[in-house]
Amino acid sequence: MTKTDVLTLAILGILRDQPLHGYQIRKRLGAELGPFRALSYGSLYPCLRRMVEAGLIESAGEEPAGASPASSRRARIAYSLTDAGRTRLAEELASAGASSWDDDAFDVRFSLFAHTDAATRLRILEGRRSRLSERLEEVAEGLKRMHERHDAYTAELQRHGLEQVEREISWLDRLIENERSAPGGDNPGPTPTGH
Amino acid sequence: MTKTDVLTLAILGILRDQPLHGYQIRKRLGAELGPFRALSYGSLYPCLRRMVEAGLIESAGEEPAGASPASSRRARIAYSLTDAGRTRLAEELASAGASSWDDDAFDVRFSLFAHTDAATRLRILEGRRSRLSERLEEVAEGLKRMHERHDAYTAELQRHGLEQVEREISWLDRLIENERSAPGGDNPGPTPTGH
DNA sequence: GACCAGTTGTATCGCACCGATACATCGGAG
DNA sequence: CTCCGATGTATCGGTGCGATACAACTGGTC
């Protein structure tokens, strides 16, 4: 139970370091994961509500602070992690189940690698790799069995898809090798977490 | 009005040459568009129902044919295009609006290129190209502005995303050049539509 | 100082789609 | 003969998306 969905995880991750408004969460997430995967408010706000209900985050409704006119203060709601949220994030970051290398989950998981320990990183990368290998198999299979009933365009589409997957795999191979040869610390790379 | 959604278009396309059952539709579509984009029954059947209601397709409920026992005949429903459906498909294939190069529509549109005239093909490819160019811009922008607040992993994710888009664009460039230098017929390539 | 456009910000509604699931029949392998 | 996997139709709950509405602050321009 308590299956943490991807969106929830992403939000937990983005709130790890500072409290943020809904709007900022959306922007940050969009920036970190690329312009694809931009989540809409239609998913964000309901998810935030769910998380508040579950006690993972809490909302701080920025009070007027002082004897300002009356009521006109603009509504801004900053969300921050609760202890429960922080715990859940830690649990989630330590896990490496199949749900870590699903198509839609992997990116989010990867973007949190800086806060994931080395062993888990490696397991996720390998899991993702093997998932993509299966896929490669499938596509190659289909492409071979495609002798009959094929026009040039659908064939080209297949070929292109195949290449995409191959490329993705070799990207993972690079990362995996990198992980293996690295000191194994929690925070590799030249950039020291930013101060 | 009468906005044809992608799924509807895909089905119209797959039924162009022969009537098929829901199950077969799903398999074919999955095979043509790759293992990604495999649509689930949860979308397929409702869509088929909608299409029947709209008069685009009709269902032929394979009757027992003869004095077979009683009722045991397995339910199999073959769907075929109506004249309206055929017309709609033709309209859709002749159009080349922004909805032709959306992320989710392009593949389907492309897989129907064998039945699309040369001018439309070119326009769609170019539309897709320019859409991806915009995206490239965005990502590059974000990557540049990423000096502050970046760990090695999110940076790598960005870099990888950037490369993906670049590759996609050069794939399109190849296709576009190919289109331009080709005879301009409706059915290029060595494969003669299959007999 | 008046106006207008763009950004920040919260929020909801309908719709389409996915994943899981249930059920039934058929062909073949053990 | 029986079990398994493919074929086949169908629905349900949940969830994410796109569009949209509303509101206040920000900054530029005449």
Automatic annotation (TrEMBL), chains A, B:
SUPFAM superfamilies per the UniProt record, alphabetical: Winged helix' DNA-binding domain (SSF46785)
Originating species: Demequina litoralis
Top-level division of the source organism's lineage: Bacteria
Alphabetical list of Gene3D superfamilies matching this protein: Winged helix-like DNA-binding domain superfamily/Winged helix DNA-binding domain
Residue span(s) of domain Transcription regulator PadR N-terminal: 11-91
InterPro entries the record matches: Metal_resp_DNA-bind_regulator, Tscrpt_reg_PadR_N, WH-like_DNA-bd_sf, WH_DNA-bd_sf
Pfam families assigned to the protein according to its UniProt record, in alphabetical order: PadR
Protein name, as recorded: PadR family transcriptional regulator
